[in-house]
Structures are given as structure tokens and as C-alpha cells.
């Protein structure tokens, strides 16, 4: 069951990232984050009314607050990368970073990965080089404005942020329910909106982006809710790395909708990345 739930997380995360990145090509990344998070908060409000969860623990609320600070940093960096660079580069590199953090956290807290898992780590690092080093195809639709070298720091920073969120959500108690996300979302919205006000950026999305922003928000909160359910039924390291397969759906949608073509070096990197993530999960 945890493996199946992890695959659902990967599918919904990847779909949400595609819609969010697509929206950020017309509206700013901060606008997309605030808009999508507002939609996700509305979904959780309905869930609270429908499920009436038990009172939360202070530990879970504190972790939710931490997620509310770290999460938007990762998502803003991701949307900026997806908006200005090739999705087929940004999404996989971000996912590999996200999958590595829980592995490192496991080492720090006493876990000892098997040789197969260590092989997966090495394969993931090589995959980053292959994916980020591939030249662009000139015939793709919706050409990016930034080079791979420019978006690579955004991708790595986003991956570290997402990996930290994985660890924090995985550290919640079994009775946490949706409370960590209920705390996280309003805090994230407030922080990103405050940043937009300070920098003088508008939070009004382009009319054409309203539907895709809503889709990004619903997909993102679905992924987070399923992740919470999965991590309380299985090991964090396994659920996190399987969830990090989400670039598959992002890249597939970018290929179908935007016409992004994959270089053979990228294909090799994606295959190696998938093998590395699966090896970490199996190990």
C-alpha cells in the first residue's frame, strides 16, 4: 500500500507542477503560489467540515508551521525554474534533490542503507549530470528564456526544500491527520503575499491562468494529503523516493502540451534517475 500511495503522490505532484509551471510563464511565481495555495486551503476547509478531525498535538502543529515556511520557498524556486527553463530539466533535478534529503536524514538518524540503496544514490548523482548537461532542441514549442546553467541552482534549491518538507511531514505523529497542512497553508500564503507586497509585485493572475492555477492547487494538496497517509503506513525513505518519480508526469505533459523534445542524453539520464530512485526505494 505505501508503494501504491507513493505512486499516486508522484502522479499528482507532477501534474500540479506542470500546471503551476505553465501558469508561471504568464503570471509570476508568487502569484501562482498564492493562488494555488488558496485553492488548496479551500479544499482542506471542506475536509475539516466533512471529517471533523480530533484535536491536534502541539508537536504536529509546530512541524506544520515549519512546513509553512520551507514549503513555499521550494515551490517558488520550482515555478521560477519551470517558467524560465526546460521542464524536462528542472523537474527531474528538483525531484532528485528531494529524494536525496530523506536518505541523508536517515543516515544522520541511524539508518544504514543497503548497497542497493547506495547504488541508487550514485545513479541519481550521475543522472543529474546527464539531465542538466543535455543541449536544447531548437524546434520545441514555448522556448525557455533561461539556460540550464541558470535554472540549475533553482532546481537544486527547490529539491532541498521539498526534501526537507518530506522529512518534516514524515516526523508527524500517526494521529496528525491533516492538521500540519491546515497550519502550513495559511502561513505560506501570508509569507508569500507579504513578500510580494514588499517587492511591489502584483498577485493578480492572468485571466488565462485561473483554471491552471486552480488545477495546480488541487493537485498539490491531494499529493500532500496522500503523502501524509503513505508515510504513516510505510518508511519515509521509501515513500519519499517513490514520490520523487513525479517528473515522469511533468515531462510527459510538457512533451504532449508544449512539444518539448528530449535529447538522447536526457533520455539516458531519466532512465538512470528512475533506476536510482527505484534502487533507493528497494534498498
Describe this structure in words.
With 283 residues, the protein is mostly helical. It has helices at residues 2-23, 29-51, 58-84, 87-108, 115-133, 148-170, 179-199, 210-231, 236-243, 247-258, 264-282. The model is unreliable at 137-141 (pLDDT under 50).
Report the C-alpha radius of gyration, rounded.
18 Å
The best one-word shape is globular
Sheet with most strands:
none
Number of helices: 11
Low-confidence stretches: 137-141
Query: What is the CA–CA distance across the termini?
Result: 17 Å
* Strand elements, count: 0
Please give the share of residues in helix: over 70%
Beta-strand proportion: under 5%
Structural class, judged by helices and strands? Answer: mainly alpha
Question: What's the topology here?
Answer:
Blueprint: H1 2-23, H2 29-51, H3 58-84, H4 87-108, H5 115-133, H6 148-170, H7 179-199, H8 210-231, H9 236-243, H10 247-258, H11 264-282
Characteristic key phrases:
11 helices; mainly alpha; 283 residues; 0% strand
Brief synopsis:
This protein is an all-alpha fold and 283 residues long. It contains eleven helices and no strands.
